[in-house]
Amino acid sequence: MHFGAWLAWLQVCALFIYWAEGSTVSERRSMAIEQFTGTAYTDETMQTVLYEERHLVMHNDRGEPSHSMVLYTRPTEGPKVFANLRSDFTRGRNVSIYEFHDYALQWKEGIKYEDGRYVMYRGEGELPLEKKELSMDASNLFAGEGWHYFLLDRLDMLAQKAKKPSPFTLHLCFPAHLANYPFILKREWLKGSLLRISLSFKSFLISFFAPKIFVTYDIDQKKLLSFTGPSNVYDEKGKLQTVHIVYNKEKEGAVACKAS
To answer: What is the pTM of this model?
Structure first.
């Protein structure tokens, strides 16, 4: 077996083990793992690759995502994984329980559920984690990949041709800052089945300095095609970087796994 294929299979098995720990026997009997990749470039000219992402998404028997894992590699380091993102959607997709861990920078951040409450946390190296309870009062509150699934469920509404939807507000959590901020979501353009959406800070002062987020979806396939904006992966100096990520079609399709 080719080393790359062997490594991919190990990654699938690792995700299965991670998922199975928190699932019931009936849930483990049948599962589908969606696989796709993302390539992060320095900009939309796509001349320089910064890193690559391998996405594995577990779907329950209703076709809804229950867990996911993203493995990050750099083309200069071969198959070595320098960071990963693990998400658990079983308590809800809007505010997912997740952890992003950058091994290279010894940095981790995420959302956990403990003692009946959601908690944002961040930490570097061996230092104790900094924590802050997440206020659930804000409407349209999202953490982790929650906002992406929110948009997926509403692509048809956002793509209305008769009337362009009015911009509306989403509150996004940033555990790295132990804060959440309001963003304005706006439809930029609609070309055939392609839909371009922007998210920008609601605060004029912050938006003047902070980069916007742009995402492009294929409405017919219900698929994210690209992301342009600030990355959760910092550069080698630990500084925020803006990237353009192109998501590739599933090369191997969904993998059906059976467990007794």
So the answer is: 0.85
